[in-house]
Amino acid sequence: MKLEMMNLPDEYLALEKDILPALSAVLKSGVYIQGEPVRLFEQELANFLNVKHVISCGNGTDALQIALMALDIKAGDEVIVPAFSYVAVAEVICLLGAKPVFVDVEPQYFQLDVAKVAQAINKSTKAIVPVHLYGQAGYLDELFALAEEHGLKVVEDCAQALGAKYLFKGESRFLGSLGSFGCTSFFPTKNLACFGDGGALFTNNDGLANKARMIANHGQPKKYQHDLLGVNSRLDSLQAAVLQVKLPKLQAYLQAKEYIAQQYLNLLQKTPGLVLPAVHPNAQHTWHQFTIKVKNGHRDALKTHLQEKGISSMVYYPQTIATQKAYQAFTGNFPISETLCAEVLSLPVHPLLSLQDIRYICTQIKNFF
Q1: What is the CATH number of the domain that holds 36?
Q2: Are 309 and 331 in contact (CB under 8 A)?
Q3: pLDDT-derived band of residue 27, with 50, 70 and 90 as boundaries?
Q4: Widest Cα–Cα separation across the chain
Q5: Co-location of 224 and 263 in the same domain
Q6: Which candidate, 313, 317, 314, 321, places its Cα nearest to that of 341?
Q7: Number of domains present in the structure of the chain
Q8: Angle formed at CA 177 by CA 180 and CA 195, multiple of 5 degrees
Q9: Cα(36)–Cα(237) distance, rounded to whole angstroms?
Q10: CB-based contacts of 97: which residues, under 8 Å, 6+ apart?
Q11: With 80 as the cut, is the pLDDT of residue 127 above it?
């Protein structure tokens, strides 16, 4: 038995009868860049998220960079980001000549610690980028109130949480629709995934949408007219066609992952040495990752044990961003993030897992302890 983190080949086979005709139609059209599937997918995703604008682009990292460019983040500016996250959130800030200011997360939901964010704000701070890690958000009412108090923009990183809702100011809304921009990735392992790279930005602001769309296409309002400094970052028609097939199935996909997550929570409850993931009271979880905390220094040994039993697991993430060589100039004290780097372990949670698979995984975890 070999249980992988993902089963992309079988997920494709389940959709093959719908995907092949969609790809064939694009190939026969001869319009591979900025074709009709791109326009239609953007509108369909906007309708799904209940936002005014979706601007597709080349990948999730580009989405973050384009959002910050549209908000005029520049050299000398500071942008607050979590210390415990994927590196892209800091990378794009540095590429714009701005400074990423790392802030520790809180230990229960792995979200930005709002009190520590408040301490990090100064006259150079221009924006905050909360990362909805593993598939949920937390403390957004408090974070947005703080941002409003200081006149800061908020860009939501929804790469792991697309499709999740959040009770924001008493109203249930999709993540990505709350800030100046929401950003996502369609990387093949994401819940809404294409067969290559892809990404998108969401906004309800007409002016920002127009600016972001220009930036993503060499700063052009129309062909061969360049009004802004831009980048070359477009979702191609083939990937858009794949996403058109997958989007109507996203809710069912997330429901399947919710079922698997609940099985884990039931079967692993009261396992000594483990802390199971918690869901923020205002949040809906997409379970992009089902991430446990392994206490007492046993994480790596458990990972090895599972591997020996044919079970894949992953560490997201083994280091804080500030301890990476490229970011060592941005030092700080991040005790919660550093502890999480030593404890977190993500288990398989893809929808093709059977109940027998989940029981086997849980049995092997319990056997370890």
Answers
A1: 3.40.640.10
A2: no
A3: very high
A4: 65
A5: no
A6: 317
A7: 2
A8: 105
A9: 7
A10: 74, 75, 76
A11: yes
Nearest to 264 by CA among 291, 235, 239, 241: 291
Q: Examine residue 1 and state whether it is found in any structural domain, yes or no.
A: no
Residue 8 is classified by DSSP as: H
Query: How far is residue 330's CA from residue 326's CA, in Å, rounded to a whole number?
Result: 9
CA distance 192 to 194: 7
- Point out the domain boundary residue: 216, 247, 278: 247
Tokens 């800091």 appear where? 90
The first and second tokens of residue 203, run together, are 């906004």
Task: State whether residue 101 is helix, strand or coil.
Answer: strand
Taking only Cα atoms into account, the Rg of the chain, rounded to an integer number of angstroms, comes to 21
Whole-angstrom distance, CA of residue 178 vs CA of residue 165: 11
Q: Token pair for residue 156? A: 């939501």
Q: Could you tell me if residue 2 is inside a domain?
A: no
- Are 191 and 120 contained in the same domain? yes
Q: Which residues of 8-44 are buried (b: 16+ CB within 10 A; e: fewer)?
A: eeebeeeeeeebeebbeebeeeeeeeebebbeebbeb
Q: Respond yes or no: is residue 190 known to be catalytic.
A: yes
Overall size of the chain counted in residues: 369
Q: Are 60 and 188 a contacting pair, CB within 8 Å?
A: no
pLDDT tens sequence across 333-359: 999 999 999 999 999 999 999 999 999
Provide the token pair at 55.
Answer: 């601007």
Q: Looking at this protein, which amino acid is placed at residue 179?
A: G
Tell me the CB-side half-sphere exposure of residue 253, using CA atoms within 13 A. Answer: 21
Tokens 């086997």 map to which residue? 360
Distance of alpha carbon 68 from alpha carbon 63, whole angstroms: 9
Global confidence as pTM: 0.97
Catalytic residue (choose from 99, 116, 165, 190): 190
Tokens (6 digits) for 62: 């580009």
| Domain contains 191 | yes
In a domain, 361, yes or no: yes
* Residues 73 and 200 reside in one and the same domain: yes
190: containing domain:
8-103+110-247
pLDDT over 80 (residue 295):
yes
Report the amino acid identity of residue 216.
A
